[in-house]
User: Fold this.
Amino acid sequence: MNDFPWLTLLIVVPLVGAVVTAFLPRARGSALPKQVGLAFSGLTLVLAAVMATSYATDGGMQLEEQHSWISAAGVHYALGLDGLGLLMVLLTVVLVPIVLVASWADADQGSPHAFVGWVLALEAMSLAVFTATDVFLFYVVFEATLIPAYFLIGGFGRPGRSRAAVKFLIYQLVGGLVMLASVIGLYAVSSDAGTPSYLLSDLKSLDIGTQTERWLFLGFFVAFAIKAPMFPVHTWLADTTEKATTGTSVLLVCVLDKIGTFGMLRYCLGLFPGASQWATPVVVVLALVSIVYGAFVAIGQDDVLRLIGLTSLSHFGFIVLGIFVFSTQGGSGAVLYMVNHGMGTALLFLIAGFMIRRSGTTLISEMRGIEKVTPVLAGVFLVAGLAGAGLPGLAPFVSEMLVLISAFNHAWWAGAVAVTAIVLAAIYMLWMYQRTMTGPTPTPVAVEGAPDLGRREMGVVAPLLLGLVLFGFFPMPLLNVINPYVESTLAEVGVTDEPSVVPVSDPVPAGSVEGGQE
Amino acid sequence: MNLTDMSLSVFAADAGHVPVLDPTPASGAFTLLWLIIALPLAGAAILLLGGRATDRWGHLLGTATVLGSFVVSLTLFISLLGRGAEDREISQHLYTWFQAGTLDVGMDLLYDPLSALFLLLITGVGSLIHIYSIGYMAHDERRRRFFAYLNLFVAAMLMLVLAENYVGVFLGWEGVGLASYLLIGFWQYRPSAAAAAKKAFVMNRVGDMGLSLAIALMFVTFGTTSFVAISAVSGEASQNTLTALGLLLLLAACGKSAQVPLQAWLLDAMEGPTPVSALIHAATMVTAGVYLVTRSNFIYELAPDAQTAVVVVAVVTLLWGAILGCAKDDIKKALAGSTMSQIGYMMLAAGLGAAGYALAIFHLLMHGFFKADMFLGAGSVMHAMDDDVNMRHYGALRRAVPVTFITFAMGYLAIIGIPPFSGFWSKDKIIETALADNWVVGLFALLGAGITAFYMTRLMLMTFFGEKRWAEGVHPHESPKVMTVPLMVLAALSLLGGVMLIGDWIVDFLAPVVGEPPHEELAVPPIVVSLIALAVVAVGVTIAWMIFGRRPIPREAPQEVSFVTRAARADLYGDAINDGLVVVPGHAVATGLTTMDDVVVDGAVEGGSLAVAGLGQTLRKVQNGYVRSYALSLLGGALLVVAALLAVNLA
Assistant:
């Protein structure tokens, strides 16, 4: 299946879906656009699944396509899939149909054509971001994601959403602008060295001067830090998740934000390995601040959706920490965290959305005793919360443990600061659960007929629950994809894991894969 | 301990004798090891996912899975006894849990004499408590869910004691924490229950920070988290590393085992249904800290400073818990204080090193019997008294609930240490060993025994003797057979458990794991220590009888009491200290940072955008739509260009 442009097809299918949905006949209350959209996202999911089966775990960049686009600037239309890209693609294609089903009612508050269309457009652009192997192409689609995101935030959700959308847009545009400077800078460096090229593979072999490399690194890093987000450029996050529909929030926080940490791995570490290591002390501190600060601020929230948004600040701190300690455990933990955070936070947002639909408020202080009326909803909410708090047996634990270990390996104090998150996370999750779910007199539940989770809602949460438990006990299918990617990335950066202080005679039991350490 | 140079040198000599774990792969019956965990896990899954469809038989399935685990555990135990002492360590590799670089964490199990005894305790006492709960929870409409959570607990606890590496232990460790959270908050419509559940989980997580960091330090130091691998090379790590590991593991143990300073959650945990208090907060989960210290003997034996810390924590807690037990009128809280104190004894023994590990486990097992017996007895009393827990409303119950009384009394005789009841043998040995190691520690342990006798006698007198102080409309009745039979079994075990010490059987049985105890000479023969201990107990009993046996007990707790009583009623201000040092400042930080996030961090952004908007407002005035003003700026621009050209040309 090498010659066929699979990745292009993967991007085109949701894009066509977006256009088709937009032009569907407009009948009031028609479910047609949602059904068509679901069909297109399902088709994308199947395509991605087929691709995943043919993916060779240690084969580097695969399914590559390359066509010259703007030859004067060395710009190509170039796509490819590596381990990191594959997992991000899979995360995206899994979450989009889930979001569409979960937003069945939310989409109707505006035009369902627009909602579904923009969701599919966002999916297409995100897939392009995760598969682009040309920096210029990446930049273009990176910025293009903002258009559907802006309309999804501004068009659907709670009052005050337009302002939140503008804030989101300005933040992201500023980041994009800074990155643009670096993208242009790359052209200058590349054309100085001979023929200009934006291809990742060409740029990697480029010899950039130390100072230039650091400036270019900063341009990319700032954009990715805003996207992720990291402290102190995070304040768009809670405002956005508070106002947007929970479906939009899932796409923003679980997919779009991953572009930040994805970009750090592929572009910061890939193109500027020296500068990345130079920046490590500052980035590690910022990541630690994000972890603790995000958790504390989450504890202080009274709005469920703001709270969940801010937990992501803490979690992205972990991901960035794992990336920038430069070890196999850290890198693998970070990538695994990206996947697990996608599942866990998506579940938390969606179940919170179901809860809010019933209680009619987003404020924790106005909810109480909901468990009594909706025990299944409460149970799922608790599992999602515990996943976010890193409970062993649920997927995020493994990634959090890997990052903690690597942080401790980097510097004991980094581990000691990061570990406080396990207490703080327990507080924000369980305190929220206590205030909303427990108590003698329940909040009146607005949904008539079926107060507890209905069949559609169960269908939404079931795959995410399954994923959380399955990858909590069997994360190796994911790690088998991640480890080769991380090992080759670290080899490119030029770091090797430190050996343990006391060598154990037989450190690796038989049957496991040797790697990382030389 | 270790306060003198002499005892330090004793430890240096011991260092060479820390046994190395050397298991053989599971074969024959031992390949069923995984089934012990899988049975209750499957039970929990079926009951939770099956929903209301399983309501009718859920409690039966839940009990059957644990009984099944008990049968398997017993079979394996017998097979284990059939093997030679050096051949009693068996490992089973299920699959690779996660792996990155050189870190390789297997879902591996280790079955050795230590875990074998735990399996019997957990599944045995667990089965009895499941059976008891069938009756106790009969009228609760969510009984099926209760059994699902109990099964989940048993599975996690079994994982904790069967895991072959620290990450596996952590899985069980947090799993029991979750089950404990769910069960303390089982009646979560009660705000106090919901708050207690959260408090327990969060305080346990403080301890879990210790276990997480210990795992990280293990990997950094040894490149693995496996018991087997670390036990072989732990001696090569630096002294500081070993001490740090010991302290981190102690922090974890303090959280799970409610040792000072992480003790405050245990009394609140009594909000849970009484079988939960018996199983989780007395017999099994809270002893996990003792297991962790004993299991990590290859660390502690080489880290005398960490062992000293264990002993200090243990002594403080055994007195702390005993003092709380003296002042509580709530029968469950009095028992909870006692649990804390008894775990203090176990920790003390574990902190004494090779001399005490086996005794710690012995006392742990005996405590599992007699404390489960008394908690379930308390549950039976509560049933009789319409769920009133205040002992001031009890009195003279020995005739109303005779079976409960007799079984409870056997637990009582065991805990205060009257021969031949089990507690006598286990506690006496700990006091003896403590005295031999360091007489100050030994005296505190002896004092604790006296206080134990006092508060337990008080509890007995207030509940079963004296006059009726029952609330109106209360008609006590004995519990059904399904509840009293487990009581009888546990009472019998409380009486007979001491047989495990005959010929030092348990010491020899555990020696391949925890090492041979060194021979420490006491200044006096052991029988003298036993007699002194009995005398101290007698004093405690007598004082209690003088105060509570001879005088009528007021139905309302007297308010004009000594400072000590007030302090003990307030849990020795444990909550006040936590509030002052952690909760209130923590809240202030959270609120402060939230405000700062809005005002300062976001303020800078919003302020920046306001400034831009202001600039726009000003610049907007230039775009006023008047042709004349545009013409003026055109002219100005043209003049500027001309001037510039002139300047360039002239230069």
Summary: Chain A has 21 helices and two strands. Strands of chain A lie at 62-70, 75-81.
